Amino acid sequence: MTRSAFSAAVAFCMLAAPAVAQEPKRDLVVATSQADAGKLDPHLASAGADKGVLNWVFNALVRIRPGETSPEFIEPDLAESWTSSANGTEWTFTLRQGVECHGGYGEFTAEDAVYSIRRAANKETSAFSGDFAALDRVEAPDPYTVKVTLKTPIPSLLGLLSNYHGGLMVCGKAAEKLGADFSTHPIGTGPFEFVEYLPQQYIKLKANVAYFRGTPQLDTVTYRYIPSDATRDLAFQSGEVDMIFGRQNNQWVERTQAVPGAVVVGMEPAELNSLYLNKTVKPLDDIRVRQAIAHAIDRKLMVAFTGDKVAREAISVVPDGNLGVVDAGLFPYDPEKAKALLAEAGYPDGITLKTIQSSLPVLLKIMETLQADLKKSNITLDMQVVDHPTYMADIRKDLSQVTLYQAARFPVADVYLTQFFHSRSTVNTPGGVVNFSHCDAADAEIDAAKRELDPVKQKQLWKTAQEKIVADVCAVPFSEQLVVWAWNGALDLGYDLQGSLNLVPQLTEQTHFTK
Amino acid sequence: MPARRKFIIMLSFLIRRIALALTTGFVVLTLVFVVVRILPGDPAQVILGDMASEESLTALRQRLGLDRSLPAQYLDFVGGALSGDWGESMVTGRPVVTEIMTVLPWTIELTVVSLLLGTAVGVPLGVWAAVNRNRAVDYAVRVVSLLGLSFPAFVSAVILLLAFAIQLRWFPVISARSGSVGAWFQSITLPALSLGLIMAAYITRVTRSAMLEVLSEDYVRTARAKGVPWPAVVRRHALRNALLPIITVVGLFLGIQIGNSVLTEIVFNRPGLGKLIVGALNQRDYTMLQGMMVIYTLIVVFVNMLTDIAYGLADPRVKLQ
């Protein structure tokens, strides 16, 4: 071969190369910060990382459109359509036909839906049974019709039956056959089906080729458990992992954005950071002291501390983005006024408050900043730092005068208002949940909103409730933190991601790699 | 000494050691139960999450048997432990024994490989430094081993990852692989180096000082005076007599290494006992914690027993004590 012929051959190969370019990847690797899987049963999983992966395996009767978090975006999922009675207590769902359960467990019918709802409402088999307290009965008049009857109307039955918490639908035959093993072999109807679980390593899923919305464009999804932040970052940099759970600070976001091709997103639902003040103990039983604390917290400073890419100022005692949230007129930052209020209440030299604080770095750093901020107004926080499980137990025993708590809930104002501010939810009582402040300022409005069927009036009641709680200073909300994820830019989720209720981006049949 | 008497002495030595190990095991079972129950925190709370009401928590505590009296729970635990039934994890619902046995081989593998690596590097280096006392080699070995001692395992782990997984790309970041020998080698190298080098540093220093002591003994001088070649003096007369402190350190390290492996497992993302116990502690998984602590204790007791027996083999005087 002459030199020119050889050069021509090389040039041809180089030109031809794009024609035989590699196919886009079809296997996705996602890494979470959880150390290992908990229960892989949708009715028992309470950790965000478990709920996230279960959402790729299971469907619900209705779903919140992928990428959104608000119940305003509820759309059909396993149910094609639904109707409700005028008083909101009887609901009838018509199911999609021909939906197959994974693993050859047959068609998903109304019987499976009834089985699932009863299972989710049973405290023996579900961590979310409390959400179904208003459920009277659920029946299947025919294979494609599900009838749900409530004792009393609730603000969002559709939310309850959506792809969140107890709303996920299991295949009854599989759950019965597998028994206790169901929590390690989840069988649903979703776009991806369970293949294997290796403890402390990963869960592997494969495409459900019979998925009713079409065969997924990804072949497999590996969900890896990588608890070390540094290792997760390095695995992302090395390309071993395509999508990672991120850290909630600007430095991390900026550093990860510098990784070639990386996409970093801060998504909803934002977790609201609030300081809950126990109204029943001295000196917090004096509203002037509580008002002083509200004036002493600089919301701008608290946002600047974590960074504006991952945090924003709180506007109410309910997280922004919740259905029914309003700008509730939080107290302005004014340390001089705070000192004056303390003096007026009989504490001219300031006060010292005892707080039990989690050692989780993300919470501890916030509390330390808060401690420095409050000190400017002569308010001393006496912090007792304990590990997170101890903190969780102790704050529910009323051992902390002020409690820093970070949370997101199903984004309807009712849920947050009920759990954090209704007297029925007061900690250390039989119905106690997370009302650390012993707040009872808006019980009447919260209850009335639950019964109200007119959405406009319902929102008005929630507005009044928020304003009353702010005025009574049951809590001082200051910032909201977004959930941060990063992924390889070649990955197209198939929708525009604003958020994900389960804190893990939804994967759908449309999710694919572009290269 | 007649063979029969020798055998009886050895047997009584073994019986004494085993009886001691059993007593230790029982005491530990009791301590484990008490310690786990003293921990503040509530497994029911962790399992159900923060949205659960007090009523659901009470119901779950009843289901898990946490509402029963402590003596009743203790009897159940000891009975179960003796019959090999350690119950199910309170958090995942999977049997404790299965969970432990799934990850135990990973920890044993890492510990044994790093132990071999540490010994293979540490003993020759220590001997080399001792026979070259106060020369450049000795100083170099002492400085390097001091550096090794000063490095926490997780720091060296991250440095190894940055160098070999990110810059050179010789090894994966996620080092849990199986299948071929190549995959195994890739998966074990960096974690074993991270743990093994720290151990090598300890063993080097102990070997060096033990050897220095023995090398100044009269019998070593006599051996040299008799004309025994220097390598043989070092190997047969000095090293054999310096073995006891080295065995002690290796035995101690086997226990420490299993504890150290927690961070190594987390940074290299390998499965293992360390990750399991940290998870169980964070989740207040009483049954899992109990099982894990018993396993750790059994390992330490077993290793101590092996060390004692190794003493006996290395030094005949030990059995007579």
TrEMBL record, chain A:
It comes from the Bacteria. It comes from Shinella yambaruensis. InterPro entries: Peptide/Ni-bd (IPR030678), SBP_5 (IPR039424), SBP_5_dom (IPR000914). CDD domains: PBP2_NikA_DppA_OppA_like_1. Residues 74-425 form the Solute-binding protein family domain. It is found in: Periplasm. This is ABC transporter substrate-binding protein. Its main location: periplasm. Belongs to the bacterial solute-binding protein 5 family. Keywords: Signal, Transport. Residues 1-21 form the signal peptide.
